[in-house]
Each structure stands twice: as C-alpha cells, then as structure tokens.
Amino acid sequence: MDICLQEIVEAVARDAHSGASDMVINVAKSIISLSDEDFASLTTLDWKEFSIELHKAKPSIATIFNLANAIMLVSEQETYDINNIRNIIVNIIEQERSSVELIANIAGRIIDADHIITSSYSSTVGAALSSIASRKSLSVTVAESLPGGEGRQFAMKLQEMGISAEIIPDSNIFARMSDADCILTGADSLTPLGLVNKVGTRALAEAAYCFDLPAYAMCGQSKATPMRLSEMVVTEQPISDNLCERSQLFEATPLDRFTFIIMEDGLLTPDQTLNMLENREMAKVWDSLIY
C-alpha cells in the first residue's frame, strides 16, 4: 500500500478519543489533503488495500467502514476515475457536517414531550433536546451510563444549555420511566442485528417498551451499514482467585424495540430500517473477508 495511505491508516488505528463522526471527517480530510501528484500516483490496488486496512484499523466503527466501502466501490469499477474518489470524499465530509443539524431539526419537530429520558453522551441528542426546549418547557432525565459515566457529563452539558436535567443511576431507569413521555437515544452504528450504542441503551429501550412509551433513536446515514461489525468492547479484570470483574462498553438493541429511527431524510420504522440496510450497495471484496 502507498506510504501516504499507510500513514492515514496508522493515524486512525492510534485514535482512541475521537467520536465516529469526527473520526471519519479526519480521515476524509487527510485523503483530500494529499497533493495532486500523490493522488495521481495511486492505483486501484492502492485504494483497495487502503480500504481493507482502514476497516481493520477500526472494525467496530460504522462510519469508517462506510467510507472504506465507498472507496472500494469506485475501485471495483471497470473504468477508474480519480475524480470519483475525490468527489465521494468531499460529499462524505459535507454530509457528515450537516447530519446533526438535519436529524436534530426533525426530532425537534416531531417529538412532543415534556419529560424525556436518555443515557450516555450524544451531541446529536443534545442538539435535538435543545430544539425541543426552544419551543416548550422540557425536563430531561439522564442515566449516568457506567462504566464510563458519560451521562453525568451530558446532564451537566444540558444544564449549561439551560435545559432542566437530572442524573439517575442506571438501575433506576425502570423506576423513573413511569413519569416520562418518551426516550431518546443516539447510536454508534445501525446494523440488521440492532442499534449499537453505549451499554444501558437496551435497558432504556426495554423500559420504554414495558411502559408502552415511544422510543426514538437518532442515527445518521453514515452510521448505517448492512455489515456485521466486530463484537462489543469487553474487559475482564481479575480481582482475586476465582473472582473477576467484567465490563462491556457497547451493546446492540433490537430494532423492534424502537418506535422510529430518526435519520437525515425523516422517520423510519424498524421494518423500513431493515429494508434500507438490506438495499445498501456493498463492494464485492467484503464477501471474502472474515473477521
């Protein structure tokens, strides 16, 4: 693989702090910042190798896979045109930058609630809550989202935005649900196996299901993929003989536990979401790769 592309892959592999959206924008910017001379020297084989290694660098990140898949589809075309690669990369950056605002505006228009429960930290959910709060009184309950505790940070962020918020232990989700109007969550990825997000998301959705409340999930198209991504991040820490502590960071929630998935172009039911995922175009190379 070309050395310039290899450096991009290595930077992605080292990135342990960026969110999925920021990560794919950083990669896309790195690609289009290549000089015209470097870009012109890249072959279809370089792009194919790059796409595979890029996905392997972050096998659980849907935005990175979708970028790799888009490049691979162009590389598999009989007539290779360097401008098609550039155009795809530029479009991905533009779509990613506009995604949060589009989704938040839709959620702000269709969610009519006085009390919403959420968990973890999501900039997209924050933008939607801000939109809702701009037209009516709103209170938000945020589950603390252990083991990372991102929910506490999110609740404080909402308070800074002027939105009434409270923090609850994750174990109190069911107890608090009787006072809520709906739940709202973000997503790290959307696959046929379910919506993947921080642990605690499924408890949130199951509680809403038990109380017959609407359950909304917000997810950009860049996070939707028909590809089965790698397993969730799990750690095990020995405490003493025959005793260890197990911690899982992400989990998949079945799509049928959500009322609607809110995306850039509107609302999708679980069945419509599955149909959308199944109709996504996939490069041929992924069929031969096993992870």
Strand-helix topology:
Blueprint: H1 3-14, H2 20-32, H3 36-41, H4 44-57, H5 62-75, H6 82-110, E1 115-119, H7 123-133, E2 139-143, H8 150-160, E3 164-168, H9 173-177, E4 182-185, E5 189-191, E6 194-198, H10 201-210, E7 215-218, E8 234-240, E9 243-248, E10 250-253, E11 260-263, E12 266-268, H11 270-278
Parallel strand pairs: 1-2, 1-4, 2-3, 4-7, 7-11
Antiparallel strand pairs: 5-6, 6-10, 8-9, 11-12
Could you list some keywords that capture this structure?
12 strands, 19% strand, 7-stranded mixed sheet, 291 residues, 11 helices, 2 domains, alpha/beta, Rossmann fold, globular, 3-stranded antiparallel sheet, Four Helix Bundle (Hemerythrin (Met), subunit A)
Q: Which runs of at least 5 residues are low in confidence (pLDDT < 50)?
A: none
How much strand? 15-25%
Instruction: Look at the helices and sheets and give the structural class.
Output: alpha/beta
Major sheet attributes: 7 strands, mixed
Name given to the CATH homologous superfamily of the largest domain: Translation initiation factor eif-2b, domain 2
Assign an overall shape: globular
Number of helix segments? Answer: 11
CATH class category of the largest domain: Alpha Beta
- N-to-C CA distance: 21 Å
Radius of gyration: 20 Å
Account of the 3D structure:
The chain is an alpha/beta fold and 291 residues long. The protein has two domains: 3-97, translation initiation factor eif-2b, domain 1 (Four Helix Bundle (Hemerythrin (Met), subunit A)), CATH 1.20.120; 100-278, Rossmann fold. The chain is built from eleven helices and twelve strands. It has helices at residues 3-14, 20-32, 36-41, 44-57, 62-75, 82-110, 123-133, 150-160, 173-177, 201-210, 270-278, and strands spanning 115-119, 139-143, 164-168, 182-185, 189-191, 194-198, 215-218, 234-240, 243-248, 250-253, 260-263, 266-268. Strands 3-2-1-4-7-11-12 form a seven-stranded mixed sheet, sandwiched between helices. A three-stranded antiparallel sheet has the order 5-6-10, with helices on one face. A two-stranded antiparallel ribbon has the order 8-9. α7 (123-133) links the parallel β1 (115-119) and β2. α1 packs antiparallel against α2 (20-32), α2 (20-32) packs antiparallel against α6 (82-110) and α6 crosses α7. It starts with a helix and ends in a 13-residue tail after the last helix.
